[in-house]
Amino acid sequence: MTASGVSNPVDVIKVRQQLKTQTPGVKANAFWKVGYQMARTEGIRSLGNGFAASMMREASYSGLRLGTYEFFKDRVYELSKGSLSRDSLTLKVCGATIAASIGSFVANPADLVKVRMQAHYPAGKPYRHTLDCLISVWREGAHKQGVSSPFAGGIRSLYRGVEATTIRGIVLSVSQICSYDHVKHLIKKRGLMEEGLKLHLTASLFAGLFCSITSNPIDVVKVRVMNDKERKFKGVFDCVRSIIVKEGPLAFYKGFGMCWARLGTHTIVSFLVFERVRLLFGISPL
Q: Which parts of the chain are coiled coil (predicted)?
C-alpha cells in the first residue's frame, strides 16, 4: 500500500497512455504530454485518481501474493519430498504462481474500479467516488439484457478481465518476487553484498526492470478490457486480436516508460518496506 501510494500518479498516466488507440508511430502519447494535459485540463489532483481503489487492491492483491509466497514455497517443497532444493528457481516460481493466482482473483473487483477511476472521460467523470463506481459496475452486469440472475450478472461484471488480471498477476509476481529472491540469493552466495539495505535496493532494481518488461503487454490488454463499458471486446483474446490488427504489436508496449517508472518505484518501495517490517517483527529476511 505504501508503494502504491507513492507511485499512484505514475499509474494514472500509464493507464491513460494504454487506453489511447492511436496510429502506430504517432508521438503524441508521451508520458509528459499526458501528465501535462491532465494537470492543465483536470487539475493536479487528477493524478490522485483511483487512490482509494488502489489501496483496496494492494491490501488484497499484494497482501496475499507477498504474504503467502513463502507459505506456498514451503508446501511445494514438502510435496516434492526433497526433489526440489530450497534455493531452486522452480520452487520459487511455483510458490509465486500459486500466491499470485489467489491474490489476483480476490483483488479483481478493486483492480477494475481502480482502472475506471483513473480513465479519462471527455464528457465528465461518471463516478462520484469509489463506492459509486463499484455499484455502477455491478449494475452494468445486473441490468444487462438476457441475464438470468442479476446477482450472477453483477458478479460477472465485477470480474470482467479476470483472465488478464490473473495472467498478469502470475507473470508479474514470478518475474518480480522470484527475480528479487533469486538475485538476492546469488549476490549473497558470491559474497558481493551482505544482508542489508544495499542488497535489498540492488535486488529490487533488477526485479523492477524485469517485471516491467514481462508484464506490460498483459497490462495493456487488462486495462482495455476493464474499461470497456460498451462491451466492444468479446473477451481478452478478442482484445488482443483487435490491438494487433488496428495498432500493431508495438501497441502492447504503450506506456512502457511509465510502467517501468511505476513498477520500478513500486518494486523498490515494496521490498524495502517488506524487509523492514519483517525485521521489526523478528522475521528472517526473504
A: none
* 41-50 LR contacts (CB < 8 Å, sep 24+): 46/12, 47/8, 47/9, 47/12, 47/13, 48/8, 48/9, 48/12, 49/12, 49/117, 49/118, 50/8, 50/11, 50/12, 50/113, 50/114, 50/115, 50/116, 50/117, 50/118, 50/130
Q: CA angle, 261 as apex, 63 and 9 as ends, to 5°?
A: 75
pLDDT at 25 over 60: no
pLDDT at site 22: 45
**pTM tops 0.90, yes or no:** no
Report how far residue 49's alpha carbon sits from residue 129's, in angstroms, rounded to the nearest whole number. Answer: 10
Structural domains of the chain, ranges and CATH numbers in brackets? 2-280 (1.50.40.10)
H-helix or E-strand spanning residue 89: helix 89-118
Q: What is the mean pLDDT of the chain?
A: 88
* Residue 74 grid coordinates: 514451503
Output the CA–CA distances (angstroms, integers) from residue 69 to 28, 74, 175, in the order listed: 40, 9, 13
Please write the tens of the pLDDT for every residue from 235-266: 888 999 999 999 899 889 887 887 888 888 98
